[in-house]
């Protein structure tokens, strides 16, 4: 931290309300828009405190809670943002509250209240706000606020926060949407204050409610694992909550709109001449289609080996009990135990009568855990329960996926189960614990068009259990295939798309090469209630959209999962290992070390690579992604991932006049330079190198030319 004198403090905050024994603080909130985004709140960003002319080290105001509520309708978005701060010091803090905004999407009907008292903010246009940002940056010696360059701001000055007291700031406003006919809506909330907070945020809550006049087909996020609640076809609530966690990522959520039948939405990104990546969002039918119900046979296969810890044993029984409660009157079931030897509750499938269901619960409560895991024979015994009849067949496999008895080769086990599953039973696997072999269980379920559910931490919520069992029903849409039609070479992941039995969308990521025209056309084939459906959807790779960088990253994540499977099968020294290292380096991903059986980190990473839509979950700690650029930490410097020694380099000193002139001429550079006082940035094959010192400083005239 750089201590600044009272003259600078007076310039920043003005004379009124200032005292020599007050600690000066900057409270920052922000709103920016991609499609129509805003900010989720602010921070107290404090300047040094002086007492009797001497600097005093004090703790920043603590962000106790942050709550953002957004209501999205056809023509506008309504925002209500609440934050509560605590001054844990013995002295009063004085500060300024800022609400930056994107000048392309100015807020309307803005109101700011502080502890329920209305405030009249001062409005600063971008050219008025930028000099204030420069003053703050010089005063605190930290470039983080330069991320706001190019934005306007609403300012409330001279805020006082008494010792050991809290202050709640609430902001309300509307953003008018520029179009009301789009097929996708993006809501973005840059979490400025939460990211800049000292330490974890005690309570973070984000609620986005879509209230549209057209059906909402799918809601998803590339930044956070959101929970969804569908109130009606036209209304969906997306929520995210965390407690006592540091915040590194801004929030964004997407909604696909329109239609009620089985359909698809396609987004794509060009990565080379004629090549690129795409994402297909498969939307199941919204209306509950009438079809003659087909009875089902369900075998619950539960791992009772000694490797299952007590907490997971309780979760296993809870999961099976929930499944038993969902059986219909015409359904049949049985329970298979997987240990050193395989056991059966009954010799064969039994009807789901109240008596049999009660007996099943007693059987579960009487199980003793211990010994090894003969996973192969457990699955084969489950398959033997089924007969050739007009019934649906499901196996609910609950295990950590680590065989210790019998067939121990993962690929050999998968191949043997594939051959033995002659009646086409679907395997729905619940992977128990962070150390579960998620790769083995994923492959077993994928080849049978089932699904995998990873149980870790405190266990699943009721909503997650409902989503898992949603697929153990008669499918509405099955035999789905997705393939680009107008490219010479293409791939799609997953290669086998699970059948759809409920309202959960599916995502297919792929790449293409040698595109024949200006647009990419993706063909979709499926059977909807037994009838064949074939249609195509097109995408313009050159169209600008904020979702595109995420398509490339998630596609790379799916490829990482595939190569992790290959590495384990073919060996650590195989070509798959080299490809894994290259992909991890290119995209800044974490990479676990494989072994005979997956380590705790390996299984967890595989699961994230295979299922997550959130790239930040698997980013290395030494990288930062700003827009479409990847920066790597090298010592105390952040270096652009595209940097090469052959590039022409210009050097500028941090906080010099030339440094600020760069941002004044090109405000978008602020988001990159905000990384720190030492940054190497590449723009148009030319390099600007920011150094923390006065040496090698160029004039502003020599600096601007690389970025014209």
UniProtKB/TrEMBL annotation:
Membrane-crossing segments per the record: none
SMART domains assigned: VWA
Gene3D superfamilies per record: von Willebrand factor, type A domain
SUPFAM superfamilies listed in its UniProt record: vWA-like (SSF53300)
PROSITE patterns: VWFA
Domain VWFA, chain residue ranges per copy: 297-472
Pfam families to which the protein is assigned, alphabetical: VWA_3
UniProt-listed PANTHER family: VON WILLEBRAND FACTOR A DOMAIN-CONTAINING PROTEIN 5A
Protein name: VWA domain-containing protein
Species, as recorded: Desulfomonile tiedjei
């Amino acid at each position: 931290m750089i201590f600044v004198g009272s003259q600078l403090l007076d310039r920043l905050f003005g004379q009124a309300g200032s005292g020599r024994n007050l600690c000066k603080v900057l409270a920052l909130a922000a709103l920016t828009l991609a499609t129509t985004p805003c900010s989720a709140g602010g921070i107290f960003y404090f300047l040094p405190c002086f007492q009797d002319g001497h600097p005093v080290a004090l703790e920043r105001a603590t962000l106790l809670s942050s709550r953002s509520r957004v209501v999205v309708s056809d023509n506008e978005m309504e925002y209500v943002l609440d934050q509560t701060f605590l001054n844990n010091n013995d002295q009063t803090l004085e500060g300024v509250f800022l609400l930056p905004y994107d000048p392309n999407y100015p807020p309307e009907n803005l109101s700011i209240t502080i502890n329920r008292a209305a405030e009249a903010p001062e409005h600063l246009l971008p050219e008025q706000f930028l000099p204030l940002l420069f003053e703050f940056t010089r005063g605190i010696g930290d470039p983080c606020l330069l991320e706001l360059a190019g934005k306007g701001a609403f300012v409330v000055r001279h805020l006082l926060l008494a010792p050991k007291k809290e202050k709640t700031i609430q902001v309300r406003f509307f953003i008018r949407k520029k179009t009301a006919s789009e097929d996708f809506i993006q809501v973005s909330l840059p979490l400025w204050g939460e990211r800049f907070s000292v330490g974890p945020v005690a309570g973070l809550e984000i609620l986005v409610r879509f209230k549209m006049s057209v059906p909402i087909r799918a809601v998803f996020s590339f930044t956070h694992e959101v929970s969804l609640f569908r109130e009606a076809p036209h209304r969906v609530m997306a929520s995210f909550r965390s407690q006592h966690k540091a915040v590194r990522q801004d929030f964004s959520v997407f909604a696909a709109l329109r239609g009620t039948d089985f359909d698809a939405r396609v987004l794509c990104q060009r990565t080379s001449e004629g090549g690129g990546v795409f994402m297909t969002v498969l939307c199941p039918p919204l209306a509950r289609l009438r079809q003659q119900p087909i009875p089902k046979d369900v075998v619950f296969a539960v791992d009772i080996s000694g490797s299952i810890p007590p907490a997971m044993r309780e979760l296993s029984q809870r999961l099976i009990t929930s499944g038993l409660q969902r059986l219909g009157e015409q359904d049949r079931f049985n329970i298979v135990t997987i240990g050193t030897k395989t056991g059966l509750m009954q010799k064969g499938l039994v009807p789901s009568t109240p008596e049999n269901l009660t007996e099943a619960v007693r059987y579960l409560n009487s199980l003793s855990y211990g010994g090894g895991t003969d996973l192969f024979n457990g699955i084969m015994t489950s398959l033997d329960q089924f007969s050739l009849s007009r019934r649906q067949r499901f196996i609910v496999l609950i295990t950590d996926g680590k065989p210790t008895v019998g067939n121990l080769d993962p690929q050999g086990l998968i191949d043997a189960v594939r051959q033995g599953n002659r009646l086409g039973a679907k395997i729905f696997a619940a992977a128990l614990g962070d150390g579960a072999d998620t790769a083995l269980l994923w492959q077993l379920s994928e080849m049978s068009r089932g699904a995998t559910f990873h149980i870790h931490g405190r266990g699943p919520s009721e909503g997650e259990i409902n989503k898992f069992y949603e697929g153990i029903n008669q499918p509405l849409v099955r035999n789905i295939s997705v393939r680009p039609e107008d490219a010479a070479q293409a791939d799609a992941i997953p290669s086998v798309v699970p059948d759809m039995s409920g309202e959960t969308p599916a995502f297919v990521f792929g790449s293409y090469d040698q595109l024949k025209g200006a647009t990419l056309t993706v063909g979709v084939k499926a059977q909807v209630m037994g009838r064949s459906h074939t249609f195509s959807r097109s995408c313009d790779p050159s169209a600008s959209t904020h979702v595109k960088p995420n398509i490339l990253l998630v596609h790379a994540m799916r490829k990482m999962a595939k190569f992790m499977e290959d590495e384990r099968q073919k060996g650590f020294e195989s070509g798959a290992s080299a490809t894994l290292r290259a992909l991890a380096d290119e995209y800044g991903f974490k990479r676990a070390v494989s072994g005979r059986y997956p380590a705790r980190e390996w299984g967890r990473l595989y699961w994230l690579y295979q299922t997550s839509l959130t790239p930040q979950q698997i980013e290395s700690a030494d990288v930062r992604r700003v827009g479409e650029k990847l920066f790597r930490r090298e010592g105390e410097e952040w270096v652009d991932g595209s940097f090469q020694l052959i590039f022409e380099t210009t050097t500028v000193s941090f906080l010099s006049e030339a440094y600020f002139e760069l941002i004044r001429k090109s405000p978008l550079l602020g988001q990159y330079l905000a990384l720190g006082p030492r940054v190497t940035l590449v723009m148009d094959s030319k390099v600007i190198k920011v150094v923390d010192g006065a040496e090698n400083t160029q004039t502003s005239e020599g600096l601007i030319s690389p970025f014209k």
